[in-house]
Amino acid sequence: MNTAELLSWLTETDELRLEQLWAEADRVRRENVGEAVHLRGLIEISNYCVRRCAYCGLRVERGDLVRYRMTPDEVLGSARDALKFGYGTVVLQAGEDPGWRAGDLADVVRRIKSETALAVTLSLGERSPDEWRLWRAAGADRYLLRFETSNRALYDLIHPAGPDGKRSDRLAMLRELRALGYEIGSGVMIGIPGQTYADLARDLETFRELDLDMIGVGPFIPHPDTPLGKTAASAGPEQPPADELMTLKMVALTRLMCPRANIPSTTALATLNLAQGRELGLQRGANIVMPNVTPLKYRALYEIYPGKACIREDGAQCSFCLRGRLAAIGRPVGRGPGSARVVPNRAE
Ligand code: 5AD
Ligand code: FES
Fold first, then answer.
1. In terms of residue numbers, what domain contains 254?
2. How many domains does the chain have?
């Protein structure tokens, strides 16, 4: 699909024509990654963060936010929970938190890999290549690092330099992670103030160029205690809305651009539409869900944006809830780690 076609779908409003996009994305999903929905247990291991991202509720300047860092034993406990719920992967996610020392994290990864058959995905921000190498050697399989937007000027505006004063180049980091042997995942936010439709088309082309294994896209949800959450969304004709329809179009187009990728139906999408968001994502291109397995007492503190889904439920409730939701749309739960590098079993 070329840029003009992408732009035409991104701005399409005709419901009948959009039905074609949904059907095509669903067909391409089924033919390339099968019917199975893989469940990744998300463990939010720390809400400390040294950065000042203008959109994120974990930014260092949120002085009022109570911070927590799980202990290695707590992380192991959550990983065992994930196993008990039948998930094939755990995702260890945190703000950019040097308090999780690289060696301690490597020990946790090693323990999970020696005790279980779980795949381990890390989502810990912009750490150093030496740390990434150490974690990979400890057995980590995948790394998630969203590039957030392919518009470099907009990215610099919403993602100030880190404590070292350096601007980040996440595309280069993703290539580095790939060279270290990780499966790599990335993604963007949709409807960032100042973003354009052309930026979203470029995001989709960048997904393809990077040959990503995993691609997560979700709506930007304003957090009132962040700089970007206080900016009134400009309603110019170039500005895509941060809504459910726009997100579903991006999910569907991502599937068409990257047929074999693992694409989650994200928590942010579920947050916009608690009743149906996750299901609609799965029926319009997505094949992954990331149920939260973080201990209940920490969930509300991982407040990237307000109103986040599943902060009052515990791991068992989310597991039960999701199995019911998948059964209701006739999709089987995937078994095993569900790697994008392995051809799926069509029978699943
Ligand atoms: N709204 C939506 N998504 C957000 N993220 C961070 N802040 C927000 C927000 N306010 C997303 C970013 C980040 C991921 C972990 O969460 O894309 O990479
Ligand atoms: Fe958490 Fe439904 S998945 S309550």
1. 3-328
2. 1
